[in-house]
Amino acid sequence: MKILIADDDPQLVRALRITLAAHGYDVVAAPDGAAAVALAAKEHPDIVMLDLGMPRLDGVGVIHALRGWTTAPIIVVSGRTGSGDKVDALDAGADDYVTKPFQIDELLARLRALSRRAGEASGTPVVNFADVSVDLATKSVTKAGARVHLTPTEWRMLEFLARNPGTLVTRQTLLKEIWSSEQVSDSGYLRLYMSQLRKKLEPDPAHPAHLLTEQGMGYRLVV
After folding, report:
1. Kind plus residue range of the DSSP H or E element containing 211
2. Lowest mean pLDDT among 2-6, 27-31, 124-128, 185-189
3. Would strands 140-143 and 169-170 be described as parallel, antiparallel, or unpaired?
4. What is the model's pTM?
């Protein structure tokens, strides 16, 4: 999942880049509004996170420019707390608005919600790898044309990876997404369910080519 951050505060951008990368996001950044529009056209981010008070082109101007050609979710992260600023941003096409200073857990939760929304709205609800087809709309999986039975937990793990193909998803992110709890920290659960998924879906479970472990970090689905 690629995120474009547009903000003229280099310290905030640096902190967000480190934090979001640790949670499996691919981050690109722009220091002003004009650069943000150009970078969005080049990188086609899945989510855009932007400030309102930027040089060259303000945040509302960026939103108007982006909405001319993309439906990617836009979240405004701004120090402006007035209702007028929020209304202007949302009317321009923003999907969410967070005021500075913010709690990183809240921001991550909002990004997860936008990620799910973006995945549900995407025009390609079927993810294919090897002879496996994962239909995100019908929540079904087939291998070589035959239906594969997954437990609810196996499905939730595969679904989150399939909604973020090619992206490193950290163990902590998966634990939170699957069990919806800050208290679950035993990644042994993940190893168990990943092993089961590989047995059911990989051509050679002992040498996985698609459901990969990134040692010490998390997992990645290569399609």
Report:
1. strand 211-214
2. 185-189
3. unpaired
4. 0.56
- The first and second tokens of residue 29, run together, are 């950044």
Q: Which two tokens stand for residue 160?
A: 């989150």
Copy the structure tokens of residue 177. 């997404």
Neighbours of 209 (CB within 10 A): 12
Q: What count of Cα atoms within 13 Å lies in the side-chain half-sphere of residue 123?
A: 3
Instruction: Output the pLDDT for position 118.
Output: 66
CA 24-25-30 angle, to 5 degrees, is 155
Buried b (16+ CB within 10 A) or exposed e, 67-89: eeeeebbbbbbbebeeeebbebb
Q: Give CATH 3.40.50.2300 domain extents, the chain.
A: 2-121
Q: How many CB atoms lie within 10 A of CB 121?
A: 11
Which class is 126-221 in CATH? Answer: mainly alpha
Helix residue ranges per DSSP H, the chain: 10-22, 33-43, 59-67, 83-92, 104-121, 152-162, 171-179, 188-201
Q: Which amino acid is at 78?
A: S
Q: For residue 51, which amino acid is it?
A: D
Q: E strand or H helix at 206, and its extent?
A: none
- Give CA–CA dist 36/56, Å, rounded: 10
User: Domain 2-121 falls in which CATH fold?
Assistant: Rossmann fold (3.40.50)
Every domain range in the chain assigned CATH 1.10.10.10: 126-221
Name the band, by pLDDT with cuts 50, 70 and 90, for residue 113: confident
Strands ordered across the beta sheet of 140-143: 126-129, 132-135, 140-143, 146-147
